[in-house]
Design goal:
Layout (H helix, E strand, L loop, with lengths): L2 H11 L15 E3 L2 H10 L2 E6 L4 H15 L7 E6 L4 H6 L7 E6 L2 E7 L4 H8 L4
Parallel strand pairs: 1-3, 2-3
Antiparallel strand pairs: 2-4, 4-5
Length: 131
């Protein structure tokens, strides 16, 4: 590759935001681990989407939660997706009755929850409690 082409391509890539270069933005939906959840909850607001792959309600919630997590208003909120079938200790500790549950934490404490909600406006209102 000639030097001019290399420089042009390098310059074109520089203005990309950090998340486009491989680093996740602060508000990207992350897979749940107890350690990462505990650290995030101690540091600031957190949202947990308790999700099951086989759940049709969860599949309807997922694009809404993903969209809201990318919204600049939620840039300082950590969003996790917890697997309903595998995170039994988390479910038991938080008395989660079923999949498709959204939990909102602020100041280390739970400030909101909903199960089975698929309306985008209601989900936004619930998640806004983290702000």
């Amino acid at each position: 590759m000639n030097r001019r082409l290399f420089l042009a391509l390098s310059a074109a890539l520089l203005p990309l935001p950090a998340f486009a270069q491989g680093a996740a933005p602060a508000s990207a939906v992350r897979p749940f681990t107890q350690a990462s959840f505990d650290a995030a909850r101690a540091a600031g607001p957190v949202i947990v989407h308790v999700h099951a792959e086989w759940c049709p309600t969860c599949r309807r919630q997922e694009p809404i939660v993903n969209s809201l997590s990318a919204d600049p208003a939620f840039r300082n909120v950590r969003v996790f997706r917890a697997n309903f079938d595998r995170e039994t200790a988390f479910r038991n500790a938080n008395r989660i009755p079923g999949q498709s549950t959204l939990l909102v934490f602020k100041g280390g404490a739970e400030v909101g929850r909903a199960t089975g909600v698929v309306d985008a406006a209601q989900i936004r209102e619930l998640l806004s409690r983290a702000l």
